[in-house]
């Protein structure tokens, strides 16, 4: 079995320690050794020259929406709520949805993301379940995937106008979790709060009772799936924690009690602020009709201010916050995901090393693979990047794919390095 050695560069192992000169040795699909210095002799090993580069774990997206339509090079202005949702009039069926998700998965892997935790499917189809299997089988390129169900709103009127009389209540929530688990999803998504995009003041509207959320939590544990939720209001965050939700998105308006609850389960829960779309709405939406006034009506201006206020406190309390920013909209397309690391540093108060650790080690943990994914350490999966420069000094270099000189997933190169050292 071929052994591959990355040498002559820096190594960031994902733990949050500063990159240091070293070597990473890969055999099969695993890292077998991480050395603290460079060696001159490597025998018959294949040697990759990482001079001027940093070898690091692959990035992990914590808030993926691979079924959303917009990606770099493939912008779809018809999915731009609330201004334009004409996309939903063009749904062609599972085959077309899967093809787009496969395209998006390849684009995300090209951007250096070797794993992705889904924050919800766009439509009630098993698209992500099928995609997860095809990626795992090597049939299509893409990040390792944890598939999530469609987002469950607690409104009795379905998109086609049909009224579901039994949609609300604890029993309905249990049934939904069981149904999605039977379809093969890894996690089930609930919209515990509404959103200002959909209705004025929606971010402060809590849509589920504690009884409903608790019933969902009980069913999830029985079925062996995780629960994710959109939660902006303080009350929705509290309900999520008490019900055992594992990934809580946004937490934009968490109050002291909500923060105390999050801190009490900080070894079990993950939060993902998703600053990417909010920043894009405030600063980069004009081309798609989102000027400052519209951004204010959508709640994005207030949300950006709320994140900037709350996440330094989340950081100080040691609650695991992960990059991942609702990519898939026309002004925030899939493929730009690495920008979240910059926003963590410049907007939310994290250091570059903290942002990198969140996107690697914590990412492996949210995937449920913390003992074999997200670090460069013996026995861990060989999902890694070789990046020109030092991202611990400047996380923005990860946004330029030309700086990612090699991408390895499971010991195989998705992107081959341009330079190899002469045999020694």
TrEMBL record:
<protein>
    <submittedName>
        <fullName>Amidohydrolase family protein</fullName>
    </submittedName>
</protein>
<feature type="domain" description="Amidohydrolase-related">
    <location>
        <begin position="54"/>
        <end position="412"/>
    </location>
</feature>
<dbReference type="InterPro" id="IPR006680">
    <property type="entry name" value="Amidohydro-rel"/>
</dbReference>
<dbReference type="InterPro" id="IPR011059">
    <property type="entry name" value="Metal-dep_hydrolase_composite"/>
</dbReference>
<dbReference type="Pfam" id="PF01979">
    <property type="entry name" value="Amidohydro_1"/>
</dbReference>
<dbReference type="InterPro" id="IPR051781">
    <property type="entry name" value="Metallo-dep_Hydrolase"/>
</dbReference>
<dbReference type="InterPro" id="IPR032466">
    <property type="entry name" value="Metal_Hydrolase"/>
</dbReference>
